[in-house]
Amino acid sequence: MKQLSDDEIIAALRQVDVPEPSPLFWNHLSQRVREAVANEPAPAPGWINRLNVAWAAGVFGAVAVVVLAVVVTVHRGGRHEVDSVPAAVTNGVAQVNDALPTLQDDASWAVMGDLASQLNFEDAAAAGLIATPGSAEQAVGQLSQDEQQAAVELLQQAIRNSRQTKRL
């Protein structure tokens, strides 16, 4: 079989006489298309709504992870190395430090670091994930009464811990 060039194929196609369809063809085709569209079932409220719900759930999950990381960080407070500490205080601190993993050993901290390294800040700002002035007050305002009380207790404990650390 011989390979034809494009020009040869076009010339061969132009030599073929293709008859025009019946004048009723277009009317019948149009009617069949109209009937097929009319008989088509209405689309289920599906993937668009599920996509919006999934997107909203993803944003909510990301915000929840960030809030959880902030609460854990505030709750644990900063760890400060102290050169000279009384023995009574050292025993209590040693017990607390042994109970808590260091940040390098904390898997959730590693996950947060990995997620933050993959974050495109321009996209995050466009999605409203960047903290803006007043966003903390707005977030606290959305907490329930019990959650607000727990946040106040955590903040008071962190302040007491920081004062004790400064005295030492």
Count every beta strand, where a strand is a DSSP E run of 2 or more residues.
Answer: 0
Average pLDDT value?
Answer: 75
Tally of helical runs: 8
Low-confidence stretches: 88-94
Order of helices and strands: HHHHHHHH
What structural category characterises the helix and strand content?
mainly alpha
Task: Give the terminus-to-terminus CA distance.
Answer: 95 Å
Could you give a short account of the major beta sheet?
none
Portion of residues in beta strands equals under 5%
Helical percent range?
55-70%
As a whole number of angstroms, the C-alpha radius of gyration is 34 Å
Kindly report the oligomeric state of this protein: single chain
Shape: elongated
Topology, please?
Elements: H1 6-15, H2 23-39, H3 47-76, H4 87-99, H5 107-117, H6 121-126, H7 135-141, H8 145-167
Helix pairs in contact: 3-8
Task: Describe the model.
With 168 residues, the protein is mainly α. It is built from eight helices and no strands. The protein has helices at residues 6-15, 23-39, 47-76, 87-99, 107-117, 121-126, 135-141, 145-167. α3 (47-76) packs parallel to α8. It is elongated. Mean pLDDT is 75; it is low at 88-94.
Short description:
This protein is mainly alpha-helical. It contains eight helices and no strands.
List keywords for this structure.
168 residues, elongated, 0% strand
